[in-house]
Amino acid sequence: MALLVQKYGGTSVGSVERIQSVALKVKKARDEGHQMVVVVSAMSGETNRLVALAKAIQEPSNPRELDVLLSTGEQVTIALLAMALEKIGCPARSYTGFQAHILTDSAFNKARIQEIDDARVRADLEAGFVVVVAGFQGVDEQGDITTLGRGGSDTTAVAMAAALKADECQIFTDVDGVYTTDPRVEPKARKLDKITFEEMLEMASLGSKVLQIRSVEFAGKYHVPLRVLSSFEEGEGTLITFEEDGMEEAKISGIAFNRDEAKLTVRGVPDMPGVAYKILGPIGEANIEVDMIVQNISHDGTTDLTFTVHRNDYRKALAILQEVAKGLNAREVLGDDTIVKISLVGVGMRSHAGIAGTMFGTLAKEGINIRMISTSEIKISVVIDEKYLELGVRALHEAFGLAKA
Amino acid sequence: MALLVQKYGGTSVGSVERIQSVALKVKKARDEGHQMVVVVSAMSGETNRLVALAKAIQEPSNPRELDVLLSTGEQVTIALLAMALEKIGCPARSYTGFQAHILTDSAFNKARIQEIDDARVRADLEAGFVVVVAGFQGVDEQGDITTLGRGGSDTTAVAMAAALKADECQIFTDVDGVYTTDPRVEPKARKLDKITFEEMLEMASLGSKVLQIRSVEFAGKYHVPLRVLSSFEEGEGTLITFEEDGMEEAKISGIAFNRDEAKLTVRGVPDMPGVAYKILGPIGEANIEVDMIVQNISHDGTTDLTFTVHRNDYRKALAILQEVAKGLNAREVLGDDTIVKISLVGVGMRSHAGIAGTMFGTLAKEGINIRMISTSEIKISVVIDEKYLELGVRALHEAFGLAKA
Question: Omega before A282 cis (within 30°)?
Fold first, then answer.
């Protein structure tokens, strides 16, 4: 008998019929002898409906009141799912954030979980109930309702699993697992049975939107075994694991990509301490997130600094840079918002020089020019023109033999 | 400076625009220097929407989960109203049932308030906030969410007013006060400036659906001055008061009526102790509420017992009586579901014999036959054929000079 935490997102509980089919899945696991905690999101469309109501009244909306409003979405789902479970002979009890004692800080709209007092949930599990918990929400020390930000239901599930020391945290989504790359770009993409936390973090942050990145970090930190599965199809999904089989072997797990990038370059800035800070400081102050940063060696005492931002922030970043460049006596500011990033992700690739070579060679053979390169312990990222995205992903998928298991 | 509790029902907060206009009303009172607590219901239609969702899944729905579900309706309204208040420069803070520490028993769907810990609400009032409280909901000792049953928002308002020792509890509805009778039946009906609690209880229980009867009882018990006003029109409404001006004078406050009545008679039952119990016991066990009960003197050792029930329960009550009558050797069972009840309500009428005479004489003059009579300290009720309802109400309204102030 295991203790499982399952999480179903908005699409999975988007209608009465889908809630009923989630109930059947939960009952099946319980009939197999498992203790079950189920975390659910708001029915799809509900959060948007509530946000629209709030906007019609006050924009930006008072953060505290917005959380009072939004948290009702999940509260509706937990009640309906508990009813659906009881209806099919599976005693269940729902828990809002405050009832599950999910204590957070007071950062409304983006609160962080600090502690979970799971005494009552444990008692209900022992008594044979399925415990249904509202995702995305908590309560702060003053008793104010907080929400964890969009996608926070994944985090709730992982936090419950960590608090309860669950055997597994299963995230049910509309995909059946983590793939070697996006199947819409490369139809030969293969579902992975396993992936390490580090790889998953890279895949997630690079745009494979299967899991919310915070929840993966959280799971890694508290050593919660995490599994991604489909709500709609049978299957084992993908297990995100701590075991790294064959560490010595360079294993490419997949190819992630991100279409939302834009790059900016400040050319000919004096190569002296503090320059990077003078350029990137104002960008950060404007709340613009910087992704890749590349600075190469200098020529004649000056250097070029290039970085990428989200495409939505491109115009704003460009305007800021033009101001900054003046003060730095930089030669010019260049920008391009028609670029994409492709990354090869895999444990232990750093120590295998052949991999970078194969990657660059493959792209060259297809006539794809590489604009930027950045590497980490478990990934190699390149920036290329957006028109080459599909071609590049497919060529790399083939070159690293990812279609074969 | 007074402390006012205002309550706005579902129609008054039925849209974004209406919520904004409630905010203006609240701000106006606050600008006059009052401390404000506002209790709100779910937006009209919302509770029905949620009930329909629940029914689609489980019927009857699990009572605990139904309360988790339904309580979201008011939670949406408090957040939106708090935002609307803040938007117009009126700092506000919303409170769910658990946040306002409205402690109830555990009778889901029809919980009773046991205690309110108002420390935090008081602190917010002192700090200058308008406090917006979700009506209809509370929390039990285990931390489970409860609801007070339909119309329970009135009760929440009165309970908050009692706990805070508010100067007045103002119930805003879609009528502008309590009338001498229903203006749809008698266009000359006049709005009362004042009515006593006892009279209001009789008026409410007799079908003048202005206030939920429980909230009036509650207000009477805790001596909370209650005022009924219109959400949509300016005016002083009707104050429900403890002072009884001119007790010696018989004052008729109004004429209430109820169309939902049906009467049943068991004829020729042995006139002996326990007979009424033998007849009415099985009716009560079948959860049928009995309204008027009349038993006259006996003839030849037998008597007739007549009582009225809600029309919806008529067929069921008739079937039960036919069984009971056999065991009692009763002569026959008679029934009529085309009757109505009209009541004259006023303090001190019992001691003024002339009133009953005027009432019966007025009806006789219109050719209206009286089928049953029952009296209490502050009312005289008669049962007549339903076709005479409007005629009877208008004749009595005229006879007692209710159109004049």
Answer: no
